[in-house]
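re: ur question from yesterday

yeah so i grabbed the chain u mentioned. its 549 aa long if i counted rite. heres the sequnce exactly as i have it in my notes:
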Amino acid sequence: MITPGINKFLEKHLILVLSVLFLIALGPLMAQRDFTPSNELRYLNIADEALQGGHLFAFTNQGEPYADKPPLYIWMIMLCKLIFGRHSMFALSLFSFIPAFGIIWIMDRWLRETRPSVTVRDRAAAALMLGSSALFLGMSVFLRMDMLLCFFITASLYVFHRRYRGLGNPSAQSILLPVLIFLALFTKGPVGLMVPPLAIIVYLAVERRIREAGKYIGWKTWGIIAGLSALWFTGVWFDGGKDYLNNLLFHQTVDRAVNAFHHKEPFWYYAVAIWYIMAPYSLMTVPVSFAGSFGKRQDSTEKLFSSVFIPTFILLSLFSSKLAIYLAPVIPFMTYFTFMKASDIGSRKWFNVSLAIPEAILALAGIAVVAGLSIGNRMPAIGDIADTYPFISSPFIYAGAIILAVGFVTAILTLFLRKSWKNSIIVSAATMLAFVFSVSFEMKQANDFIGFGNLSDDLIEWSGNTGMEKISDRTDIYTMFIYRPENMSVYLGCPIKNYGEDSERFISEAPSTGYLIIMTEDLSGSEDLFRFLENRQKMVSGPYTVYKL
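ran it thru and got these structure tokens back, copy pasting raw so excuse formatting
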């Protein structure tokens, strides 16, 4: 039982306490995880090239123009490199973690302002429900600009709603709102510009006060956004020229929206994605939020939240380019709408069932892993997996599986014995954080299968560059059968020539110096390549084999 003194402390500092607990749980992962080749290494390489070339607005990746993203996030990576002298995973992860808890702080404050009677337990459950939902939790540590975008969108709508309710300084809010909208644009692009005004217009229409739209998003708002955008585009023009500016304004916006050249998906893509990005609470949040949005009993805050996620969901579905992570802006509003609506409705049996099903699946997953690790090599299939991924036999993985099993069984018992779906959410969130904390201690070994850091360190040492951070830029590095290897140059400091799956071309060109990096399992697929390499010196690093040419 919480004492009055602790309860009073938590009333004032709940989000700070939760942020510390999340940081403790996620800290080992943030400190030890390697950069992923798909996006993170690319951002680092873009920042490196910008620092080398002295560019602030027009970027390149492997020497090719990169107008895909606005500069704010790249600036943050550049700043970290200048401060630390290297790319620090922990420091860069904070650019996701801090905005994540900025969002939770805003949503918690919103909840307290509009529901004064809310308890500390309820606030904790709502914050943990958001913080531990699958996509939000992942975005809290991975290096992408989506969490920062989500923060600026959330902050802009909070500022609008305070002004709408007559709270705060309207003069300051009339400037802060467009600045926040511009920062959302400056972080990720057009979505940041479109979502807040669209939500405000829909909300005012629902409130039957659409004529007041000009008060919030009138000439002053658009003038400030246009002025800041003009400064940005002027910098782009001076730094990258007319072609780069055209690429930024048209190819990377209109073309991606209408006929995507990347991530093209059907209209209904998000109708499927929403179920797993909101896991393990999606069986509750999706029905309550979408059905509740069209109900008659909604207060002003609930109307605004539904005016954010419903139009945003439709808008993003209309765009040709789709990724699950693009739905990030809807997650805080769907989660807190669900929590407020479910709290108003009261306890319902189907609430318990909707939470119990994923909890049971995760508990069974934990039990299955414990059983599998206990059996070990007595089953050939399990032995093969352990041989391929040796880190899974670690005590930390075993402990993580036990935590999953025990934690989610406890969450289920809390649902049906104590009849409290809010307490069950708290137990579920705590279980997920404890699980991540435990398995994070095997991250250094798992990094063999995540990024190129361990491979690069092994190659630098094997090549005789002991004590050096990078290989000479005159060294030739070739790759085959590796996904996005070009940004390995961040570690090695030299260009990477990728032959893809074209072993015939590699053999015909027969490089006589340097190193070939290849996925070991793919070497057996080409007898000619195997014969070409079989008598050469080699070094194995995780799933890769490096040959000296």
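noticed a couple things. The first helix runs from residue 4 to 32. also Residues 122 and 422 are 7 Å apart (CA to CA).
anyway ttyl
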